[in-house]
TrEMBL record:
Its main location: other. It comes from Streptosporangium vulgare. SUPFAM superfamilies: Periplasmic binding protein-like II. Belongs to the bacterial solute-binding protein 5 family. Residues 76-436 form the Solute-binding protein family domain. It is found in: Cell envelope. Keywords: Signal, Transport. It comes from the Bacteria. InterPro entries: Peptide/Ni-bd (IPR030678), SBP_5 (IPR039424), SBP_5_dom (IPR000914). The keyword Transport applies. This is ABC transporter substrate-binding protein.
Length: 534
C-alpha cells in the first residue's frame, strides 16, 4: 500500500477533521513542551522530491513550506508566494515571493531558490517517483528579480497550483540540493515551523525542534509553532503503538487498526482525531493489459459479484466506509452520480462471466473456459490486508473465480509489478484533488522495467481518458477541470479499471492534554498548531 468515516469539518488554521472522546479543550493555548508521537511507517527516503510515499509527505511537512497553501475547502492561498499572475496562454506563471525569509541553515529564500528546487525535482539524478510527474508540463524557471520567479510550461496545466501546495514540491535549501540524493533521504532543510538537526534515522524516527525564526506561515494562519519539540518514533506493530499510548510512553499515535480504534474510544483519557483521506480509495487494481482481467466483462463481473461494502463492515466494524467510486467522496471533484455502477449484483455478474466465455465448471466449482480455470493472482506485501483478502477470496469463490493470494517479499513484489506479472494488486493513494486521476490512470505512469516504479498499477491505457486528461489540464477554471475529470471517472467506471473497496481514514489518537491536532489537505496529520495543556 502506498497511502494510507467520519464527518469532516473545518478545524483550527484550516485543518480538517473530526474528534471523538476526551476532555474539552482549555480556554487558552500555550507554548512549550515536547510531543511524543509514534507512527506506523517510515519512509524509505525523507526527501519528498524523491519519495512518493505518504510517510515522506507527512514527515517532511513540518520542515518544508510550499509556494502556495491549499486549505480545507480546496482553495489555493498564498504561502511563500504572496501572489501570482498567469499569462493569457497559461504557459507562464509569475510568482511574487515573501521577503526576509531564511532557511534554517541560514541561506536566504529567494527566486533563485525556487528555480533551483523545481529544476531539482525534474533532474534525472533525482529519480523522482511522484514529484516529477506533478511537473510533467514544466519547461523552466528563472529568477527575474530577487523576489520574482517566472515558471514556464510546455503546455497548460490547470493542476500546477495544487501540485505546488504539496510537500512533494516543498522548497528546500539550495545548498542541500547540491549534495547527494542519499544525503537528502536522511536530512532535509526548509523554511518551515520546525527543523530537524539529526534528520531521519532508519528504524528509529526523527526529532523536530521549533524554528524560533519562523515568519512564513500561510495566509490566515498564525506564526510560530507552539510546541518546542516533536519526537517521532517508528512503531510498525499496531498493538505496540496502542500499548505505548495507553502506558504513557507516547502522547499520540497514528493509524491504529479499526479494532484498536474501537477499543480506545471506550477508554477514558484519550481522544481520537480523524478525517477521510481524499484521493483514491483503497482499491483492488485489475491488470487491464494482460490475463483474464484484460476482458472488461470479467472486471465488471468481479466488481458486481462481490459485496464489497458488506465485507468492509465485517472486517472493519464500521470504522471504514465502503467505497462507491473512483475517487473518495471527500475529494474535490468526486462524482457521486456513478455510485449505482458499484452496486452488488451477483446475477448480473454471472451473466457477464457467461458473456466472457467462462461457462464451464470444474470439480471444485470454479468457472472454466477451454478447460482452463478462471484464476486471478492477487499479490501483496503488507500483512495488514490478510483478513480482508481472505474474505474477498471467499466471496470470489462463490462467483466461481479462484483468487490466489500471494504474499511476496519486497524485491519479488517490485519485479512482478514492473513486469506486469499479476492479475490484482491493492493500494490507496491520498491526494487533495482530482488530478490524482492522472497519476493513477495516465498511460505514462504504467510501471515498466525501463520506467521503474510508477502508479498506474491497472496498466490502463485508454485514448478517451488521455483526451480527458488533456481537457482537464487545459481547463481555465476549477469548474472546467472538474467537468473533465467527471468524464474521466465515468469512463474509468465503465471500464471497471479499478475495484474500490473502502475509504481510508487518517487518524491520530492522543492522550488528554494534547490539543488542536489537525489534518493537511492531503489527509496527513498537521501538528503545526498542536499544543500541550498538560
Amino acid at each position: 500500500m502506498l497511502a494510507l468515516a467520519t464527518a469532516c469539518s473545518a478545524g483550527a488554521d484550516g485543518a480538517v477533521g473530526a474528534t471523538t472522546g476526551g476532555a474539552g479543550a482549555s480556554a487558552q493555548p500555550r507554548s512549550g513542551g515536547t510531543l511524543r508521537l509514534a507512527v506506523e511507517k517510515e519512509p524509505e527516503c525523507l526527501d519528498p522530491h524523491q519519495s512518493p510515499t505518504e510517510s515522506a509527505r507527512a514527515l517532511s511537512r513540518p520542515i518544508l513550506d510550499s509556494l502556495v497553501h491549499q486549505d480545507a475547502r480546496g482553495s489555493i492561498r498564498p504561502w511563500l508566494a504572496t501572489g501570482w499572475k498567469v499569462s493569457p496562454d497559461r504557459l507562464t506563471y509569475t510568482f511574487e515571493l515573501r521577503r526576509g525569509v531564511t532557511f534554517t541553515d541560514g541561506e536566504r529564500f529567494d527566486a533563485q531558490a525556487v528555480a533551483d528546487n523545481l529544476d531539482h525535482v525534474v533532474a534525472p539524478k533525482t529519480k523522482s517517483l511522484l514529484a516529477g510527474s506533478l511537473l510533467a508540463a514544466y519547461r523552466s524557471a528563472r529568477a527575474v528579480g530577487p523576489s520574482t520567479v517566472e515558471v514556464r510550461l510546455k503546455r497548460p496545466d490547470s493542476g500546477l497550483l495544487g501540485a505546488l501546495a504539496l510537500p512533494n514540491l516543498g522548497i528546500q535549501s539550495p545548498r542541500t540540493l547540491k549534495g547527494s540524493p542519499s544525503a537528502l533521504c536522511a536530512k532535509i532543510v526548509g523554511t518551515g515551523p520546525f527543523r530537524s538537526d539529526t534528520g531521519f534515522v532508519p528504524q528509529k524516527g526523527i526529532d523536530y525542534v521549533r524554528n524560533t525564526s519562523y515568519n512564513s506561515a500561510p495566509e490566515g494562519r498564525r506564526g510560530q509553532a507552539r510546541l518546542d519539540r516533536i519526537e517521532v518514533k517508528v512503531v510498525p506493530d499496531n498493538a505496540a503503538r496502542l500499548g505505548a499510548l495507553t502506558s504513557g510512553q507516547v502522547d499520540a499515535v497514528t493509524a491504529l487498526s479499526p479494532t484498536s480504534l474501537s477499543t480506545v474510544r471506550s477508554l477514558p483519557g484519550f481522544t481520537l482525531h480523524s478525517t477521510p483521506y481524499p484521493g483514491i480509495n483503497y482499491s483492488y487494481w485489475p491488470n487491464t493489459a494482460n490475463g483474464p482481467l484484460s476482458d472488461v466483462n470479467v472486471r465488471r463481473a468481479l466488481r458486481a459479484g462481490i459485496d464489497w461494502g458488506q465485507i468492509v463492515k465485517n472486517v472493519y466494524f464500521g470504522v471504514y466506509q465502503g467505497a462507491q467510486g473512483v475517487l473518495s467522496a471527500s475529494t474535490p471533484g468526486y462524482d457521486g452520480s456513478l455510485a449505482p455502477a458499484y452496486a452488488h449484483d451477483p446475477a448480473g455478474a454471472a451473466r457477464l462471466l457467461d458473456q466472457a466465455g467462462w461457462t464451464g465448471r470444474d470439480a471444485a466449482g470454479y468457472r472454466t473456459k477451454d478447460g482452463r480455470r478462471l484464476t486471478l493472482r492477487h499479490m501483496w506485501s503488507d500483512g495488514s490486508v490478510a483478513n480482508l483478502a481472505t474474505q474477498i477470496q471467499s466471496a470470489a469463490k462463490q462467483l466461481g473465480i479462484e483468487l490466489v493470494e500471494e504474499n511476496l517479499d519486497g524485491g519479488t513484489f517490485v519485479k512482478r509489478l514492473l513486469d506486469g506479472d499479476y492479475e490484482l494488486i491493492d493500494t490507496s493513494f491520498s491526494a487533495p484533488g482530482p488530478d490524482v486521476l492522472r497519476v493513477l490512470f495516465g498511460a505514462d505512469n504504467i510501471p515498466t522495467p525501463e520506467r521503474g516504479i510508477s502508479n498506474n498499477m491497472a496498466r490502463y491505457d485508454n485514448p478517451e481518458v488521455e483526451a480527458g486528461f488533456r481537457r482537464a489540464l487545459d481547463a481555465e477554471d476549477q469548474a472546467g477541470q472538474h467537468r473533465a475529470y467527471a468524464e474521466v471517472q465515468k469512463r474509468v467506471t465503465e471500464d471497471a479499471a479499478v475495484l474500490p473497496v473502502y475509504s481510508p481514514l487518517s487518524t491520530v489518537t492522543v492522550r488528554d492534554g494534547v490539543r488542536e491536532i489537525g489534518f493537511n489537505a492531503d489527509g496527513t496529520p498537521d501538528l503545526y498548531g498542536a499544543w500541550l495543556a498538560s
